[in-house]
Amino acid sequence: MEQKMKIGIIYGGKSSEHEVSLSTAKAIMNAIDRAQFNIIPYYIQLNGTWVKGQEPEGEIESVEQLRLSGTPEQQPNVLRLKEEIDIAFPVIHGPYGEDGTLQGLLEMADVPYVGTGVLGSSLGMDKVAMKNVFGEIGIPQCKYLSFLRAQLEQGMFEVVSQIEESLGYPCFVKPANMGSSVGISKAKNRESLLEALQLAARFDRKIIVEEFVSGRELEIGVLGNDELKTSVIGEIVSVNEFYDYEAKYKNTGTKLHIPAHIPDYVKTQIEEMGKKAFHGVDATGLSRIDFFWDEKNDKVLINEINTMPGFTPFSMYPMLFQAAGISYGELIHTLVQLGFERYDDRHGNAVAAEKLN
């Protein structure tokens, strides 16, 4: 009998998206084919402590079952994970999981893993670096400015004046390194701009401010390493000022249209721009890429790429591929295969001069 592969699901993490990660981990563990894989849970608590759990028996009914606790003896040696698992599936959203730090740890431990590597994860997390790359490779996007927290502390008036002169109102203020719309505000005047800058600075030392774009919010999923598949395109219609944390995770009346009702030429533009953005930041495995379509002026603008999007069966990325004919279980299996493929490809690189002879 063929031995089952051991897949380590790494979840939790030291970020405001800890709860989202638990929901993603629960959904993936319940969907994984137990005939092919043994599941090993690795829970990263909010304080950063790793706890290794036992393989779950049967279906996980509540995320509370995933909040592992244990003695120091149960803490895994993270640099020896290769002795315990065949591949890792990190499902931590936000800092310390989606930003390249966890990916770097897995690279050092020589463990194959699902998703984007160190560089792509880091670029995909940092909205300023991401937009700099998009601009360099010629993908249309809105105007933006970036500031350090120290600049706000040293000269808030100068920062505000620059934003008013270059971008005007309304504008969006965001922490550069945060997901799930945490810390994001829409500023409509100077008073709300000051509040928005102070809020964003609580979550990151780097802040990005973007001009307001009046357009339809469209999203596409990308799957693959070198050869890419795209999902159908979905549209988000939020009853809130924008698609914020409440709208994403607390069912506050947001409507999702899958597929989006848009012209074929707009679909083609988004597919092409999505693939270009994916390769531009050196993403692998999966990403969800968000766009605005300014219908009045007929312009498609990229908003951002998310290299570890929400991944429950009711999250946008899996639903977009479900509509494209790829089920949730098939998607997980494909991502695991892509993780091994990326690992094998990386290990084909020469590491010493003698290997070139």
What can you see in these coordinates?
The protein contains ten helices and 13 strands. By secondary structure, the chain is an alpha+beta fold. It folds into three domains: 5-113, Rossmann fold (3-Layer(aba) Sandwich), CATH 3.40.50.20; 143-211, ATP-grasp fold, A domain (Dna Ligase, domain 1), CATH 3.30.1490.20; 216-340, ATP-grasp fold, B domain (D-amino Acid Aminotransferase, Chain A, domain 1, 2-Layer Sandwich), CATH 3.30.470. The strands form three sheets. It has a five-stranded antiparallel beta sheet with strand order 11-10-9-12-13. The protein is globular. The model has no long low-confidence stretch (mean pLDDT 91).
Number of helices: 10
Residue fraction in strands: 15-25%
Q: How are the strands of the largest sheet arranged? A: 11-10-9-12-13
Helical content (DSSP H or I, runs of 4+) = 25-40%
Q: Characterize the quaternary organization of these chains.
A: single chain
Topology:
Elements: E1 5-12, H1 18-31, E2 37-44, E3 50-52, E4 87-90, H2 101-108, H3 118-125, H4 127-136, E5 144-148, H5 149-166, E6 171-175, E7 185-187, H6 190-203, E8 206-211, E9 216-224, E10 228-237, H7 245-249, E11 255-257, H8 264-280, E12 285-294, E13 299-306, H9 316-323, H10 328-346
Parallel strand pairs: 1-2, 1-4
Antiparallel strand pairs: 2-3, 5-8, 6-7, 6-8, 9-10, 9-12, 10-11, 12-13
